[in-house]
Amino acid sequence: MGWAMAGHGADEHPHGADRLCEAGDRVYSRAVRRGRLPRREAERVPCLLELALLHPDPDDMDYLVPTSPQEVMTRLLRGMYDEVRASQRRVGSAVAAFEWYAGLGRQVPSAGASAEGPAIRVLDGLARIQAAMDEATQACTSEVLTVQPGGIRREAELSEGLHRAMALRGRGVRMRDLYTHVARHGHGLLSYLELMGDAVEARTLDEVVERLILFDRTVAFIPANAERTMALELRHPALVEYLGTVFERLWRLAIPLTAPLPDTGIEGISHREQSIAALLAEGHQDAVIAERLGISVRTCRAHIARLSETLGAVSRTQLGVRIAQAGLDGARPPVVIPPGRGSPTAR
C-alpha cells in the first residue's frame, strides 16, 4: 500500500502518514483527543484527508472524524511487510542468477579475475568456507554486515564464529546483524551480544533473506546449496554493492533487538500469528511457513490453531476466508478491534 501524497496539496505537504508535517500533526492530534473537529479547521492540512487520517462524519458532514491511531499503525506495518517481501523476492532471483553464472564460470577460463581473486568463487566444503571467512576477517578494517536466518541460533553456531567476532571487535570493526524475531528467544544470542558489547548491533524481522556475510563492502559470502556445505565468495563490485543495498533496506525496516515488537492492534492475534496469516493467504504450506519464520512445524501449527480459534474458523478453508475478512491477507489494512469489543471467539 502506498502512502505517498497525490493530488491537491501535494506540493505543500510532500509526505506520508509515517512523517506528518507539523500542521498535520497538530490537527490530527486534536481530532483524536476530541473525537471529531469542524471541517474548516483542516482546510490548511489537506494531507490528512488525502492520507485518510481524517474523513467526513456521516452524522454531520461539516465535521471530520479521525482514523484511529491503531488502524494507522497497522497500515504502516503492512506497508513495511510488503517492502520486505518484495526485497526478499528480488534477492532470491539474484541468488539463483549467481548460482547459474557460477556454474558457467566453472566451464570456461576466468577472464575477470582481479588482484584479490576471481569475481565469483565457489567454495566447496565447510573447511574451505571457514578458511575463506578467516581470510576475509583478517583483511577487514571497518564493517561487517550479516543476515542470519533460521530462528534461534544454536550455541555451536555462535561458538564457531566467536573467534572471528572477537578479532574484529579488537580492531574496532563495527558489526550489524539481522535475525528473525524468533531469535529473540535464544539465550545464547543474548549472551553473545552481551559479550560483544557495543561492537555489535542487532535487529530482527519476521523474515530475512538467506545467509549473507559482507566484509567492508568488498567481499560477500552467500550459500550455494540448500545444505550450506557450499558457498559463493563474491568480489564483483556490482554484486557486492547490490547485496549491501539489500541489507540496508532490510536494516531500515527491522526492529532493534532491545525494542519490543509492535502490537498488531488486533485483539487475540500476536505479531507472529499475523505473519503466519499473511503467508497462509499466499498459499504456502505449513513447512514452508515454518522455515521462513524460523520456527518448527509443530510451533507453526499451534499458532495456526490459535488463529482458527480467535477468528472462529472450523476448517482451513474457512480460516482463509476469515483471514481475508480480517484484512490479515495483506489485500487491505487489518481490521482493528477495540479492546472489549472483539469477536466472541477471541481469547
What does this 3D model show about the protein?
The structure is a single chain. Strand 2 and strand 3 form a beta hairpin. This protein has twelve helices and eleven strands. 29% of the residues are buried. The radius of gyration is 24 Å and the shape is globular. The strands form two sheets. An eight-stranded mixed sheet has the order 4-10-9-8-5-6-7-11, sandwiched between helices. It has a three-stranded antiparallel sheet with strand order 1-3-2. The chain has three domains: 15-88, no CATH class; 120-256, Endonuclease, Chain A; 271-326, Winged helix-like DNA-binding domain superfamily/Winged helix DNA-binding domain (Arc Repressor Mutant, subunit A), CATH 1.10.10.10. Mean pLDDT is 78; it is low at 1-12, 110-115 and 331-347. It has helices at 22-34, 47-50, 69-105, 126-139, 155-160, 162-170, 187-196, 237-253, 271-281, 286-293, 297-311, 316-325; strands spanning 37-38, 54-57, 60-66, 120-124, 143-148, 174-180, 200-205, 212-215, 219-223, 230-234, 255-256. Helix 9 (271-281) packs across helix 11 and helix 10 crosses helix 11. The chain has 347 residues and is of the alpha+beta class.
